[in-house]
């Protein structure tokens, strides 16, 4: 088999601006029927990539690879060579179409019933999604597209399994969070803030059995990690974004230095923002579902699976309401900036109030962490823009001064 990167890489995601080094070579393949496979491909530096394969080319929507994976899940759990199939539910369905919104990985809708998400690269270490989904399933959490299953691969019996693909329920007529949140801000309403607050509180309550006191080393890691996120953002940015970070670096460091001692940690989402919440239904009351349990794409794989404070999720979601206001202002210059900022702030406040009310006596949130963790998220947004989506840079550039002004 002769493989070439031009035939293997998706059009978007991690490969927008870079081709892997060297020539591709096939490492392993999970048969999906009809000449299709879910393949692990190595590059010249021994980096590993996930490729749904048909003949010697990447299988796209309509080629049947996603259908083949859904059919495999319908047969139940299986160990096939170095591959492990974990199935929670599902039936064989047919018909494929691509998901076209911006995403780090690649997704295909199958039979208007399931969404297959192919990972693109295969970093070392265990992926957070399988065990997190397993915990949520055990807790009976229903505020997400119901997971159908996952496929993992281990390079050796001793190695941690690596996630290659996930399959979950397709939520019909669902609207992406960066769409509905901006629509709410444009309409001048707090919109989905309250419902999302309840959803995230239910999510954290489902994971409450994983909570435990934080160790001194973990608290120290929050501080050192925050400082490292700032330095990373300064390193990878250039132009106006870089200059802004350098000017505000001391103020950001001062906020990170105030991270308190103590607290608790638990399993968390790790990359929570409005874009991870789907809204379904043509009119209120809408159905909100939490998605994408991959963890933050700019964080090392080993860190994504660690227990973290609940405030990491809450700060990220709250900050994203501010970001929705920034997006609205950019794309709607006819709207009064003050009104847009007020609507975004109302959504943020509604989210926080509803989260706290729904959480009740479950002492999971340390509100002292919200501001430093929000600033840490803004630093990560700079890094994400510089390394994944350059046109996003205007958002953290506007958000950083706002976050520093907040008490």
UniProtKB/TrEMBL annotation:
It catalyses: D-glucosamine + ATP = D-glucosamine 6-phosphate + ADP + H(+). Keywords: ATP-binding, Carbohydrate metabolism, Kinase, Magnesium, Metal-binding, Nucleotide-binding, Transferase. It comes from the Bacteria. InterPro entries: GlcN_kinase, Kinase-like_dom_sf. The keyword Nucleus does not apply. Its EC number is 2.7.1.8. Belongs to the actinobacterial glucosamine kinase family. ATP binds at residues 117, 176. Mg(2+) 2 binds at residues 292, 294. A motif (Substrate specificity determinant motif) lies at residues 377-392. Catalyzes the ATP-dependent phosphorylation of D-glucosamine (GlcN) to D-glucosamine 6-phosphate. May be involved in the phosphorylation of acquired extracellular GlcN derived from the hydrolysis of chitosan, i.e., in the incorporation of exogenous GlcN into the bacterial GlcNAc metabolism. SUPFAM superfamilies: Protein kinase-like (PK-like) (SSF56112). Monomer. The lineage of its organism: Bacteria, Bacillati, Actinomycetota, Actinomycetes, Propionibacteriales. It comes from Nocardioides bizhenqiangii. Mg(2+) 1 binds at residues 276, 292. D-glucosamine binds at residues 271, 381. The keyword Nucleotide-binding applies. Gene3D superfamilies: 3.90.1200.10. HAMAP family: GlcN_kinase. This is Glucosamine kinase. Binds 2 Mg(2+) ions per subunit. Its cofactor is Mg(2+).
């Amino acid at each position: 088999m002769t493989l070439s990167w031009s035939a293997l890489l998706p059009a978007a995601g991690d490969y927008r601006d870079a081709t892997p080094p060297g020539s591709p070579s096939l490492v392993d393949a999970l048969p999906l029927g009809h000449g299709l496979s879910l393949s692990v491909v190595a590059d010249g530096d021994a980096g590993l990539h996930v490729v749904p394969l048909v003949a010697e080319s990447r299988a796209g929507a309509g080629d049947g690879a996603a259908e083949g994976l859904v059919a495999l899940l319908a047969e139940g759990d299986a160990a096939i060579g170095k591959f492990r199939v974990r199935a929670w539910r599902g039936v064989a369905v047919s018909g494929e179409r691509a998901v076209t919104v911006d995403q780090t990985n690649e997704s295909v809708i199958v039979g208007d019933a399931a969404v297959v998400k192919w990972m693109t690269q295969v970093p070392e270490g265990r992926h957070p999604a399988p065990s997190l989904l397993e915990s949520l399933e055990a807790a009976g959490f229903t505020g997400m597209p119901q997971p159908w299953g996952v496929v993992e691969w281990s390079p050796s019996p001793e190695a941690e399994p690596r996630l290659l693909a996930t399959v979950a329920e397709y939520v019909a007529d669902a609207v992406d969070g960066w769409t509905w949140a901006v629509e709410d801000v444009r309409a001048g309403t707090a919109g989905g803030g309250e419902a999302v607050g309840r959803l995230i509180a239910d999510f954290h309550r489902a994971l409450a059995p994983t909570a435990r006191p934080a160790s001194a080393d973990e608290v120290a890691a929050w501080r050192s990690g925050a400082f490292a996120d700032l330095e990373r953002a300064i390193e990878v940015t250039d132009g106006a974004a870089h200059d802004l970070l350098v000017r505000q670096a001391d103020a950001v460091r001062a906020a990170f230095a105030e991270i308190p001692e103590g607290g608790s940690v638990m399993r968390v989402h790790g990359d929570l923002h409005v874009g991870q919440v789907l809204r379904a239904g043509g009119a209120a009351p809408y159905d909100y579902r939490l998605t994408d349990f991959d963890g933050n794409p700019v964080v090392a794989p080993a860190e994504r699976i660690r227990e973290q404070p609940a405030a990491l999720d809450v700060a990220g979601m709250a900050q994203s309401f501010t970001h929705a206001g920034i997006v609205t202002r950019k794309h709607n210059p006819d709207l009064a900036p003050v009104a847009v900022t007020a609507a975004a702030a109302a959504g943020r406040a509604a989210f926080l109030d509803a989260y706290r009310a729904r959480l009740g006596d479950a002492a999971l949130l340390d509100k002292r962490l919200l501001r430093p963790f929000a600033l840490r998220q803004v630093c990560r947004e700079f890094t994400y823009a510089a390394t994944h989506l350059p046109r996003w840079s205007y958002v953290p550039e506007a958000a950083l001064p706002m976050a520093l002004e907040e008490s």
